[in-house]
Design goal:
Elements lengths: L3 H18 L19 E7 L2 E7 L7 H14 L15 E8 L3 E3 L4 H7 L6 E6 L2 E5 L10 H11 L12 E5 L1 E6 L5
Antiparallel strand pairs: 1-2, 1-3, 3-8, 4-7, 5-6, 5-7
C-alpha cells in the first residue's frame, strides 16, 4: 500500500509527464522503492469542475510509473473529451491518480444478482460481453448512487442495451486507492 506522500508524488509525476508531452522539460520519475511494482491506474483530470479526461488500465501490465505516465498523457491529450492544452495549462488541472486493486470476478448469472453483489461507494465495476467492455471507477457512485441506475449507465457506457440481462455477461469488481493534487496557483 502506498502512503499519501507516495500518492501525491504520483500526481505530481503525472502533471510533469503532461508538461513534458506539451514541450516542457522531461519528467523526473519519483525514486522511491515504493513504486517498484507493476500496477494499474487511472489518471483523471479536471478543469475547474469539468472533467477534462480520464484514461487508465484495468490490469497491471507494466511498471506503475510507466502506467501513470502513459495514462496521464493520454487523459490530457487523447481522451475524446479533452480540450486542447498548451504548455502551462497543465498547472490549472486537478490531477487525480487511482491505483486499482486486481480485478475480482463476481459469480453472477443475472442482472439482479450483479446489482445485489455491488458495494456502492466502494466498488469499481468492469462489464465484459461479446467483445464489449466498460468500467466505472468507484468515484462514479458519487454521481450515480442508486445501484440500478449505476448499472444501467455502465451498460450504456459499454455500448450495450441498458436493460441487458444475460448469464454471459462477465462482471468484475475492484477497489482503488486514490490521491489528488489541486491546480497549482500562479
Amino acid at each position: 500500500m502506498l502512503s499519501d506522500a507516495d500518492g501525491l508524488a504520483l500526481c505530481r509525476y503525472a502533471r510533469a509527464c503532461i508538461a513534458a508531452a506539451l514541450g516542457g522539460p522531461p519528467a523526473k520519475p519519483p525514486t522511491s522503492a515504493a513504486f517498484a511494482f507493476d500496477g494499474a491506474c487511472f489518471v483523471t483530470l479536471y478543469r475547474g469542475d469539468e472533467l477534462h479526461g480520464c484514461i487508465g488500465s484495468l490490469e497491471a501490465h507494466q511498471p506503475l510509473l510507466r502506467d501513470v505516465a502513459d495514462n496521464a498523457v493520454s487523459a490530457a491529450l487523447r481522451d475524446p473529451r479533452a480540450t486542447t492544452l498548451e504548455l502551462g495549462d497543465e498547472q490549472q488541472l486537478r490531477v487525480e491518480v487511482s491505483l486499482l486493486s486486481p480485478l475480482s470476478r463476481l459469480p453472477v448469472k443475472s442482472r439482479a444478482e450483479a446489482i445485489s453483489a455491488l458495494r456502492p461507494g466502494l466498488d469499481g465495476v468492469v462489464l465484459r460481453y461479446h467483445g464489449r467492455r466498460g468500467t466505472f471507477l468507484p468515484q462514479v457512485w458519487e454521481e450515480l448512487p442508486e445501484p440500478h441506475e449505476f448499472w444501467r449507465q455502465l451498460l450504456r457506457k459499454a455500448g450495450l442495451p441498458a436493460d441487458l440481462d444475460s448469464p454471459e455477461l462477465e462482471v468484475y469488481r475492484y477497489t482503488v486507492a486514490k490521491w489528488h493534487e489541486e491546480p497549482i496557483a500562479r
